[in-house]
User: What shape does this take?
Amino acid sequence: MNKRMETQKGHVVVLTYPAQGHINPLLQFAKRLASKGLKATLATTPYTVKSIHAEPAGVQVEPISDGFDEGGYKQAPSLQAYMESFKQAGSRTLAELIKKFSNTDAAVICIVYDSMLTWAVDVARELNIYSAAFVPVSATVFSLFRSIHHGHLHLPVNPQARLPSLPGLPPLDFSDLPSFIAEPVTHSAYLTAIMEQQSIIEENDWVFGNTFEELESELAKAMSSLWPMVMIGPMVPSAYLDQQIEGDTSYGASLWNPTSDHYLKWLDTKPLNSVIYVSFGSMVSLAANQVEEIAYGLKASNRHFLWIMKDHETEKLSMEFLRSIDDSGLILNWCNQLEVLSHWSIGCYITHCGWNSILEGLSLGVPMVGVPQWSDQPTNAKFVEDVWRVGKRAKTNEEGVVSREEIEKCISKVMVGESSEEIKRSCCQWRESARRAVSKGGSSDKNIDAFIGALLKKKSKSS
Ligand code: UDP
Assistant: This one.
């Protein structure tokens, strides 16, 4: 029995939605809990289990079913059908997994679940154990949905009208809203799931936000007595922040693998802060004309770039551009993003503004150019430029496309001249602040300790 096993004090099952941007923070939270002496098991779908390697970090990974055990969402006829199937099969198999441990030393006392999967609350209630929702978006975005739930913000939002001012939030324009709010009809299945979260949120014993108090301080102050959220982030591997968890150098989950691993060596040959890293995360598929504009914006910047693009997406690049790249750019299907962002050669990150990517950019102090596409990304991009001041948000033209000129202009603003100096200063401050939050005695660290303390005091709901 290793040291960690000997000291395990209670067992928590962490349930994730099977997408990269959900697995990463939930697995990281499971690892944090394990590092503090709890037994943590990650429950995920069978086709993602093999891509997760968390045992060295003390986290066991167990399969539960979403009803599509070969390929998940891609096999489902619609998102709605997928969510319904996950609810049915997931409730049953999650309960079976938890029951496997009952009447043992490792009986499960709490489910921490991705807030998309609201049915986990019913499983916890049925088994008489605690439930904690894990919100994988910013507190700001969470509070916007909460405003709809409480009737302070009405759908559909009129693009021309002024938005009401909301507690703890800066004035927001229509273009800053998450797409689920701005275009509720296009995204009705997501919106339904999100509003369901809001309607049951108070039924949880805890609600965790992957954010930290300093980062969304106005909101944290305004809402502290009005909502149940406890901020515990950023959930980024310890090696990049507090360095307190031995061997915690990566998330330990990757649904794709880089087709080549020479990109770090390539970065090694480039000067300090000189390379532009471009990534739109794991889900976004850009329109062909947008790909072309980014390509020629990069070319016009006259800088080296590393661009992450799934293989089928590269078909959107013109032969003329591909032929012109030479050693100035590298296009790759996937990378270890943390290794890239922390590399000294990276001077700018063109990002879709997914929440994990934003937290990683902030934690590693990389200036950003936001090119948001959908979901919570527009709101995150607004904060990058106007609240945290760690980058620029690229503006779209009348056709909704960010032009090559705009890309080049934004790159220049974050990489050279007076504006870039201010941005770099903010980046350093936020990097320190993220580090402080998760370090021993920091706000997020204390919140996690308080959770563990309360959980162990209560121990079992039935006892
Ligand atoms: N990521 C990665 N390699 C890549 C692209 C993305 O490891 O080439 C990781 C990234 O570090 C982040 C996650 O995938 O943790 C993407 O999550 P995010 O919320 O930023 O965006 P999503 O993919 O959900 O849109």
